[in-house]
Structures are given as structure tokens and as C-alpha cells.
Amino acid sequence: IFVLQIESLDKSLEDLLTRVDEFVGMLDMIRSDSSQVVNESIPQIYTKATEMREIYRKIDKLEAFVKMIGSSVAGLEERVVKAETDLGAFPSTFKKILHTISIPSFLTKSSSSRQQQTLYEPPVLFKTEDYFPCLNEAPY
């Protein structure tokens, strides 16, 4: 009986040593993975984060540029609507027909005074080349 207990204890100790070896192997693997993360992955993540900050700055600049273009387009749309209401939005064929018809003098005076009131002032437009200097260069 005593021999059986010793064999059983010996087998349990061998099993326990095997488990301890596996545990130590897992600890070594975790240590090497941790050192790899600290030495390699974190610097790579930091580099990518720095690159992303630059991309975010470019996105912010692009958003501001799009807003500026949007306000410029909105201003031009307002001017077009105002010009259409002031001058009328007739197709060119109707305008030609109306010009060939003789107009009484009292109508021509009012239209000439109307034209003097609405002098055309060209809008101040942006130049794309001011914002994208690479467009000034030849493509090839």
C-alpha cells in the first residue's frame, strides 16, 4: 500500500512539475510579447498618431476651404437671383423679339433709368491657384 501511495505521489509531482513548466513558458511568452509591444508597437502607434494629427489638420483646412467656397457660391446665387428679378428672366429669343418691336418713348425712359440703377459690378472671386499652388505647375 505504501508503494502505491509513493507511486501516486510521484505521478502527481510529475504532473505538477509539467504544469509549472507550462506556466513558466506562458510567463516567458507574455514577457516577450510585452517587451515587443513596448519596444515595437508603441513607437509605431505613436508615429501613426503623429501622421493622423497632420491629416486632421489638412481635413480642418479643407473644411474651412469648402465653407469659404460655399459662402462664395451662395453670394453669387443671391446676385443671380437679384439680377433675374431686376432684369427679368426671359429667354434670349423673347428678348430679341421685344427689342425689334417699337417701344413707346415713356417705356424707354423708365427702362433706361432702370438700367442706370442696376450697374453691373463684378464679384470678387477666389482663385483656386491661391489655395492649391500645385495647380500652377505643368502636369507633365
From TrEMBL:
It comes from the Eukaryota. InterPro entries: Cappuccino. GO terms for cellular component: BLOC-1 complex. This is Biogenesis of lysosome-related organelles complex 1 subunit 4. It comes from Leptosomus discolor (Madagascar cuckoo roller). The lineage of its organism: Eukaryota, Metazoa, Chordata, Craniata, Vertebrata.
